[in-house]
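Board notes (copied after class):
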Amino acid sequence: MDLAYTAAEEAFRAEARAWLEANVPREPWPSGDTREGFALHRTWEKRLHAAGFAAVAWPKKYGGRDASLVEWLMFEEEYYRAGAPQRIAQNGIFLLAPTLFEFGTDEQKDRLLPRMAAADDVWAQAWSEPGAGSDLAGIRSRATRDAAGGGFRLSGQKTWCTRGAFCDWVFGLFRTDPAAERHKGLTYFMVPLSAPGVTVRGVGRLDGDEGFAEVFFDDVWVPDADVIGGVHQGWDVAMATTGSERGLTLRSPGRFTAAAERLVALYRSIHGQGTPVDTRVRDAVARAWIEAEQYRIFTLQTVTDVRDGRGLGAASSVNKIFWSELDVRLHETALDLLGERAELDDDAEAAGWMKGFEFALAGPIYAGTNEIQRNIVAERVLGLPRK
């Protein structure tokens, strides 16, 4: 792995930095998980697309700019350094799109990817079900063949769909062969939330945002053209999506290196004027910065592996455990530094750290709970026997 950047890569970084500095909103926006904030963030996604920055590593024909994965990482670093708005299009661009590139037909890519890049369609992930959260193979929602009109009829319930209350489409697994083994007989569908028979119901969150949703499917018709990867082949397709979610694309290192830099600045603002130093908190700040840098270098190694034809596979679970627990520790350290000030809603800096902490708490749960990820690591990475 070569940690030195080429002149072309540095020129790309300079271009991205200049554009972001000129275009990132100066005032904070409402969360993209609120109705008002979602609408604002969709306009931001469209502005990114118009500038060629919505999906930099995609081919130009789909709305990207043919950038390398290294350049994508550089853009992400600049994006978070600039404090740019959250990406409400992330589930489509960073999770579904890699799956389409691997398993989708040319017709699906031509039809879906340009609209995804332009935020004309914003996607939610429909994985979890009541009684089947991290146990993805335990889903009960079904899809049966529509003998009369072709396609499938979907029935069931999905839950914890991030921004599902506002999105246009969902993607997820449905059981197409109830008699098959747990990991067999599953099919990967894409469903417009405007389809007849779909009901979307919001779910409240700890931080007050309203974007989470349950989605109910009551005899919803879906054409064959909206199946990815073939009937009964859904598990293999879904594993590609979860590999992206836990591994390379969902949580880029720029998110954590920027947060670690803000944490260092917070520490210096509190302890920089002769204030007595709490060595425990000081060491936690140093640890957060070091671990964010570790994650950055590890991700560069992952990009090298992907470039050379090697995937993360089950090791993506190690990655997911690391970044999700780093996020929690980093924000806990910030709250330790802030002390009682962390509870002040009218302190913008403190409120930002508290909001980040509340979201970080979900990290060890979404994308598969860390307890499940540790089982995967034990069995598939370390080769330990199943108890």
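Comment from the instructor: The chain has a mean pLDDT of 91. The chain has three domains: 7-117, 123-233, 251-381.
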